[in-house]
Design brief:
The longest helix has about 35 residues. By secondary structure, the protein is mainly α. Helix 2 packs antiparallel against helix 5 and helix 6 runs antiparallel to helix 7. A two-stranded parallel ribbon has the order 1-2.
Length: about 240
């Protein structure tokens, strides 16, 4: 018979493996853009992203199955945080899966739209991709701590620093998005500025999704004293 620890450890292990593949997927985004700009083997990288995205779909189904198929005896008293937050947690994993899905969509849109890579707008988008990779790296640590906090009643997880870092990187993406769009429309030499606008917005939506995941964790953690997601305002005043 599975024990409380078995369930929590299985969820943590599955989540860690899933996050690793999401990180692998997003890490290929800047490479795909660089290869496109240099007329390199970007189509092969796009196919690699698509393959990892499909793998991520399978991994997240396993995770949600672990949660939905577990009865009270499987979850046990040690994992009541998961039991109480089951619906919100399933929605969280569904949103997390959007990260890999959207990464694949971006690179496929680049292949279809064929933007000119020799310009400031494309370089701004390449910088956005780099910031997004940083966001996902931090997100992996934050999510692992979040799930660990839910799965273990005897631990306290502090996620504040990672969440603030993600929010800061998302703000940088906003600025790069605005620069990419403004430059495209200000330069008469740019033939199709709407292409850059569309791609910059897609990249921004990916960054927004990552930040939204931190918001979801904050909401869930607000009912769980063992998970700290916001800085103590009184500490700032000391």
């Amino acid at each position: 018979m599975p024990t409380d620890a078995d369930f929590g450890e299985r969820l943590e292990s599955q989540t860690a493996a899933y996050l690793d593949r999401i990180d692998d997927c997003v890490a290929l985004l800047p490479r795909a853009l660089d290869e496109y700009a240099s007329d390199g083997p970007y189509r092969e990288t796009v196919d690699e992203i698509a393959a990892i995205e499909s793998e991520c779909d399978g991994l997240v189904r396993e995770i949600t199955g672990t949660i939905t198929n577990a009865g009270p005896d499987d979850i046990g008293l040690l994992n009541t945080r998961i039991n109480f937050n089951e619906s919100a947690l399933l929605d969280f994993y569904k949103e997390l899966d959007v990260v890999a899905n959207h990464t694949e969509r971006i690179v496929r849109e680049v292949v279809m739209m064929r933007p000119d890579a020799d310009g400031d707008s494309f370089r701004d988008m390449r910088e956005m991709a780099g910031r997004i990779v940083e966001m996902v790296t931090v997100l992996g640590d934050v999510v692992e701590g979040f799930v660990r906090g839910l799965a273990r009643s005897d631990t306290t997880e502090t996620l504040t620093e990672g969440i603030e870092a993600i929010r800061g990187l998302e703000s940088e993406c906003d600025e790069l998005r605005n620069d990419a769009i403004a430059t495209a429309f200000a330069d008469d030499a740019v033939d199709q500025p709407l292409v850059y606008r569309e791609l910059a917005i897609l990249l921004d939506e990916l960054a927004n999704t990552i930040e939204d995941l931190t918001d979801r964790m904050v909401v869930i953690a607000s009912k769980e004293p063992g998970i700290v997601t916001e800085a103590d305002p009184e500490a700032d005043g000391e």
